[in-house]
Amino acid sequence: MRIPDYQTAELRRKNVRLAWGLAGLALFFLVTSFPFWTGIFRIVGTQAIQ
Amino acid sequence: MSTTTLTHDEAHHHEAPKGWKRWLFSTNHKDIGTLYLFFALIMLFLGGASAMLIRMELFQPGIQLLDPDLYNNLVTNHALIMIFGAVMPAAAGLANWMIPMMIGAPDMALPRMNNLSFWVLPAAATMLILSFVVPFFPGGGTQINTGWTIYPPLSVQVGMSMDFLIFAIHLLGISSVLASINIIVTLLNMRAPGMTLMKMPMFCWTWLVTAFLLILVIPVLAGGVTMLLFDRHFGTSFFDAAGGGDPVLFQHLFWFFGHPEVYILLLPSIGVLSHVIPTFARKPLFGYKSMVGAMLAVATIGMVVWAHHQYTVGMSLGAVTYFMIGTILISIPVGLMVFNFIATMWRGAMTFETPMLFAVGIVLMFTFGGLSGVMLAVVPADMQYHDSMFVVAHFHYVLMPGAVFGLFAGVFYWLPKWTGHMYDEKLGKLFFWTNVISFNITFFPQHFLGLAGMPRRIVDYNMIFTEFNVISSIGAMIFGLSHLLFLYIIFKTIRGGKKAEGRSWEGAKGLEWELDSPPAFHTWTVAPQIK
Amino acid sequence: MHNNQKRETRNFKPDSICRVIQTNRSRLPGFWLIAPLSLAMGDAAAEYGLNFPEPAANVAQEIFDIHMMTMGIATFLLIIVFAIVFYSIYFHRKSRGYEADQEFHNSWFGNWSWVIVPVMVLGVDLTIAGKADAVLKKVWDVPKEENIMDVKVTGHQWWWEFDYLDHGIKVESRFVPAEESGDLYLREVDNRLVLPTGVKIRFLHTSADVLHAFWVPELAVKKDAIPGYVTETWAELNREGVFRGQCAEICGTWHSRMPIVVESVSQEKFAAWVDDQNAIKLAAAAEASVDKTWSMDELMAKGKPLYDTKCAACHQVNGVGLPPAFPPLAGSAIATGAIADHLDIVIKGKEGTAMQPWGSLNDLEIAAIVTYERNAWDNNTGDVVQPADVKQAR
């Protein structure tokens, strides 16, 4: 895979920064969609009681 | 700007590599676009074959061909393959091919991630197919008999094939999110100088909105199925009322993804129509700004009305009233889009090549599907329609014209650009007519089946439903087989045909038509200046 | 009403299969004429089975009306759109020498259509939403009345259980195989849901295993049955008759085999039916509580019909099951192993599978089923399980 040479270093930085920003947005929606932590706590809690 | 100008040095460095390495290691948006499109084509035939098996079983009352679990498994796989395997990759293929050419960019912003987002797909498809195949082997557990909605607790009962399915959904989701990030970055950072957002071609706008929708909703689905996986294997009870969980929670998570998904499938095709109709009406798109506005409105309202897929789960009066009114209001932006398309045709100088035929067909049939959608939005009436064959008819009338025919229109429209050959117009028209007529024979009678009381996803039915099922099944066989003609036309065009000019259609406007047909391996290495 | 009569002949007097197919065939050509018309003429459509069946409940009538209204509006809009598009593709074509109007989108209309069109659509939307909201308010919440009759509807894989909470009656309603149901295959059950007319009935929906949905078109009632939840709907029947529906939420292998048959009868007939059911229940309880030792033959004779109705949907009449979802009983480790384990799985079910607890059956019934399972299909263990053993195992 050849590194694309048509992008200036500045444009490349800009692209990668925006991409990470969008990935962060996706991750935020992933995490907030989970009542995950409540579930984990429930397991931990019940096992602790037992 | 006539064609791309490559300096000698650049041309030397950017020759297409030969053999399998060209495809496996490709970072070229055109090659990756081609890969996406062929992948989608294979999946279209897989999904189509499963649909034809379903209709064969439903041809007559009684269980003739498929045992009930296999039938349900096919129902599940038909939906997942068509949505995640055929329509979304096909739309991504069009995006890969066309977006850089339309905005005057040399390639996608993140070419290596582009490679990754495609090559995740075959792995995902393998997982998906394994989920279908595994139960046939000894010890493979039960078949997935849940439908694509994989509602618990039924999906918790299913054997290991459900785990394959969950991982397939994760992989498909990763692929879509990566592709979306790439498309957004490309559209926001890589436009040719002078191309403001409001000068961007409509197809790019639709994909910008689609990509944002994908980034927002796919992670929610991923979260939902992950919790399902935990419930299945790790003793959690997110969706198990006995352990303090809530089976309806999964439905909310699923449809929070599932409803915007409808617009994800729809919008790229709306984008294609926004190019096809002006081209063949030979006048500019009517209401560019209102189109952009309508699309943003659809996406926004579409994010907050998911629960109209679950009117029957027992929500409060206030909740269903809200979801009903929200859903009905979607008809405003969608109506505006349809209106703009008709107004673009109005007082144009139209010719009816295959892409335009599909476009007109879409406007008519999508309106039909949209109107039955308004009927479904009405909660008291939905108490009857819900989960009946009426719903099956409705969403096929929305998604088949709204998404699939739009992609067909796009393929016929840009095939000369991609291959450098004109497709066979006579065969194209033959394909359109057999396809659209058999589509209507297949799905129109299903409205009546639903009203008469036939639920969806049943393998066997009482004989009062026979006649419409017979008609529907006959239509489905013709509809399914007609796609072989589509395949033939595509390969015939790739192999040869009348030479296509750079501007393949008389009325075609836009940067992509300034390039040769087929375009050079790298295009717009020198960005065009937009006035 | 003519419509009503026609439907009844079709549904309730089983014709030979040949005759039905003949009638179907004679009706087929007419369909293509009728179908387009039916969209415009709702009432006429009902006669040809192209629309909802005639409502049998007060609320159902209002739902039917709003369905007809939205369908009317949709048809009207569709005709307008089709007319404009077809006018345009006929007149505004290049082959007729029509010149494209390049400034159309810049005309007054072009500049303001983004306001005009949404306002018009909003008008239509408000018409629909207004009417829908009014009907919804009447339909959605169960009226708060003292003398409302409660029926608890429990979905099981794959049968329905109806508990008449006010009468202490429980009805198990199962699909009847094709040999016995004939033309009503998948639309007939062994025990119907008998309901009185003219009484407000509240249905309380729940499920014992996975999601199901209770749907009878004539009642316009559809509600999901969700394990761990109780959802409500209500209906007031306004005519006698037999109304057929099906489970509407995919619930696994035999989703297609969960018919619902509502038999709507007058209040007097309903009272008589309730008395009958109570008498049957008392007789069964009396029989089960008799302190006697049952012989193998007696238990096998009782066990076979019980097994065939309650167990055979999954484990099959011949005991071979439908692996891997439903294990065979013929020669199985459970059915030929320790009696205690066998009783345990029948009474308590097996978690994570479709095997549900059957503890609601009385001791005699379980004893008969277990005895039958241990001696049928060459299992020949020779074990005789007595009701007393079951009582002990609970």
Automatic annotation (TrEMBL), chain A:
Alphabetical keyword list: Membrane, Transmembrane, Transmembrane helix
Transmembrane segments: 20-44
Protein name: Uncharacterized protein
UniProtKB/TrEMBL annotation, chain B:
Protein name, as recorded: Cytochrome c oxidase subunit 1
Organism, as annotated: Candidatus Thiodiazotropha endolucinida
Signal peptide: none
Family the UniProt entry places it in: Belongs to the heme-copper respiratory oxidase family.
Catalysed reaction, written as an equation: 4 Fe(II)-[cytochrome c] + O2 + 8 H(+)(in) = 4 Fe(III)-[cytochrome c] + 2 H2O + 4 H(+)(out)
Highest taxon above the source species: Bacteria
Gene name of the record: ctaD
Keywords in alphabetical order: Cell membrane, Copper, Electron transport, Heme, Iron, Membrane, Metal-binding, Oxidoreductase, Respiratory chain, Translocase, Transmembrane, Transmembrane helix, Transport
Residue ranges constituting the Cytochrome oxidase subunit I profile domain according to the UniProt record: 14-531
UniProtKB/TrEMBL annotation, chain C:
Reactions listed under catalytic activity: 4 Fe(II)-[cytochrome c] + O2 + 8 H(+)(in) = 4 Fe(III)-[cytochrome c] + 2 H2O + 4 H(+)(out)
Enzyme Commission number(s) from the entry: 7.1.1.9
Membrane topology label: Multi-pass membrane protein
Cofactor info, note text: Binds a copper A center.
Annotated signal sequence range: none
UniProt xrefs under Gene3D superfamilies: 1.10.287.90, Cupredoxins - blue copper proteins, Cytochrome c-like domain
Span of domain Cytochrome oxidase subunit II copper A binding: 146-276
Any coiled-coil regions, as ranges: none
Biological process (GO), any one: ATP synthesis coupled electron transport
Domain Cytochrome c positions: 298-377
Transmembrane regions listed in the UniProt entry: 71-91, 111-129
Essential cofactor(s): Cu cation
Recorded GO MF terms: copper ion binding; cytochrome-c oxidase activity; heme binding; oxidoreductase activity
Domain Cytochrome oxidase subunit II transmembrane region profile: 44-140
Keywords: Copper, Electron transport, Heme, Iron, Membrane, Metal-binding, Oxidoreductase, Respiratory chain, Translocase, Transmembrane, Transmembrane helix, Transport
Coarse class of the protein's main subcellular location: membrane
Family (UniProt): Belongs to the cytochrome c oxidase subunit 2 family.
Task performed by this protein: Subunits I and II form the functional core of the enzyme complex. Electrons originating in cytochrome c are transferred via heme a and Cu(A) to the binuclear center formed by heme a3 and Cu(B).
Protein name: Cytochrome c oxidase subunit 2
Organism: Candidatus Thiodiazotropha endolucinida
Gene: ctaC
